[in-house]
Amino acid sequence: MRVVAALVLVLALSACGVRRDLKPAAGKALPPAPYGREEPRSANALLKPHVQAAPTRQVELRQRSEERADDPFDLPPSD
């Protein structure tokens, strides 16, 4: 019974998502345009994170397993 209830809940929650363009709420407006910009950005542009907020990794730091160098700050806990 619990499994069926959980499945119904998951299906109901997954059906809540709506896929269409975002619009400001009724009576509300988008934030004003930033300084130096002619027109305000759209809602989708405002939701897209800036490159510095979500950087992509360009290189893999370690290509293979390597022994770690001795860390002088890796000390045991003091009593």
Describe this structure in words.
- By secondary structure, this protein is mainly α.
- The protein contains two helices and no strands.
- It has helices at 2-14, 43-47.
- The longest helix has 13 residues, at 2-14.
- It is flat, with a radius of gyration of 25 Å.
Put the structure in a nutshell.
By secondary structure, the chain is mainly α. It has 2 helices and no strands.
Highlighted features:
2 helices; 79 residues; mainly alpha; single chain
Q: What is the overall silhouette?
A: flat
Question: How many helical stretches?
Answer: 2
Query: What level of helicity do the residues show?
Result: 10-25%
Unreliable stretches (pLDDT < 50, length at least 5) are none
Gyration radius over CA: 25 Å
Overall residue-averaged pLDDT value: 79
Number of strands: 0
| Sheet of most strands | none
SSE order, one letter for each helix or strand: HH
Strand fraction equals under 5%
Structural class assignment: mainly alpha
For the record, give the distance between the C-alpha atoms at the N and C termini, rounded to a whole number: 53 Å
Q: Helix and strand layout, with pairings?
A:
Elements: H1 2-14, H2 43-47
